[in-house]
# Entry
Amino acid sequence: MMSSTTFFIYKTTIPTPSNYSLTFPFNSNVVHYCSIPNKKKKMPFPLFTSSTIIGAVELLQPSLSFFSTAMINFINPPLHPSVDPNHVLTGNFAPVNSELPPTACPAVKGELPQSLNGTYIRNGPNPPRHPHGPHHLFEGDGMLHAIKLSDGEATFCSRYVRTYKYDLENDHGFPIFPNILSGFYSVVDLSRCAIAIYRVLKGQIDPRKGFGLANTSVSLFSNNLFALGESDLPYAIRLTEDGDIETIGRHDFDGKAFINITTHPKIDPKTGEAFAFRCSPIPPYVTFFCIDKKGSKQEDVPIFSMVNPTFVHDFSVTKQYIVFSESQLAINPLRLLMCQGMPVMAELDKVLGVLGRYSSTGTGIKWFEAAGFNAMHVINAWEEEDDEEIILVAPNAISIENFFHNIEKVHFSLEKVRINLRNGSVTRTTLSEKNLEMGSINPSYMGKKNRYAYMGIGDMIPKMSGVVKIDLELECEVSRRVYGDGCFGGEPMFVAKDGAVEEDDGYIVTYMHDENNGVSRFVVMDAKSQTLDVVAAVKLPRRVPYGFHGLFVRRGDLDQMC
# Structure
């Protein structure tokens, strides 16, 4: 019988009782156990002395090492860099460690314009704890970074959106919901999903309360401010007088909204209506609906003629029509069950769908072929004066099959697309060869003809190295600002001046981060100047990670909110 036992761990030296110390260099992350007898005691089976056991282990070590490594790679194989949290969450893509209450920002270079009385608020992922499994850049609980501007002074704040998922995991202190977008690659990932399903069956998780991240965008409609993520319903939030951010709760529009909503609803500046849709992996794959100015959701309009579960992230609304752009990315949940990674794959060329803005059914939708056109985001759309053509402006994602795993290989080419409703033809014009994404326009021109678009110059989306101003009438670039070596911003957001008459009379705002010194700033640029001159830059009290979409909310709009 053994009188003492010592546990040996990979590349760790552990002493035995007074006789010797050994190191077993096993090659894996698995803890290996080996029992070593005490040589001072007489063994009942002298054949198995410590020396023979050590000799046998040394003899078998290459086989054991190969076997253990093979097993761990089979059970939990190495992750692709795009879903390896140790690769994804680095640099300024790394999350900040905590929330930040309202904090004054006294260091202002230049002068903040009086027209910017309000709050700029931007959404983005910020996982509160390091993920244990696959993690994509697009995942992570939503954190809102807001800077309140009032009479030339600035106050900054960062808060998590208090989703059901965030609160549940925060209470327990560990992840409960598996990362679906990252995909499943092994039985370990499947087991995480199985545990979550078990918790649902045990009543520990209530799926009726949603499981989204609310990490993608911010939108203001029906006198409510919302944080949105497309896997769930929106979360209503509130901006306080002192510049803080509060989560009101998940908003289901009096029980009429079902499961989820797009992160890019379109708000008609004239009627106050919000137009939106939801995607689903089962038919109908896309369902369109409208929310009136008072917040009442209208009847669903399912699009049954969309025959594949295409990944649709954005759409456009004109005076008379809505336009859906299918992409070459198709949703395939079976890939999860087969441990083939993300539930998304690239398919054949898709089409553009045009439906009447107030259609009560989806049967009247018309489809137009647009080979190789993949619009992840739409800048604007409108009808020409003869109502026979729809003009669509959007970045076209070339090599979209790399969108989730190698986004640096995707080139976004800004295009103007003409859809002829009479003869069914689609013609496309490239407006810029640069890698342009994450753009904005003067929001008062949504759904009608406009002249200017402000686009981020892509480095690795959503990390932008500068901003350009595109003249949609002349079909060319007219202004540009590059942030400089090691400096990167996010989505350039246009904000009109008070009482502005001309479309481009206003400012472009964004958060910018200097990777050379780790300092983040809120930057205000003159949208009319030839070089998009910086008129003010506010040094922020801490780093702001790269994120997604934002919104500038004027003080008057905040006062009218519910």
Q: What stands out?
A: The two ends are 76 Å apart (CA to CA). The chain has six helices and 35 strands. Helices lie at 50-75, 85-88, 164-172, 187-201, 334-337, 555-560.
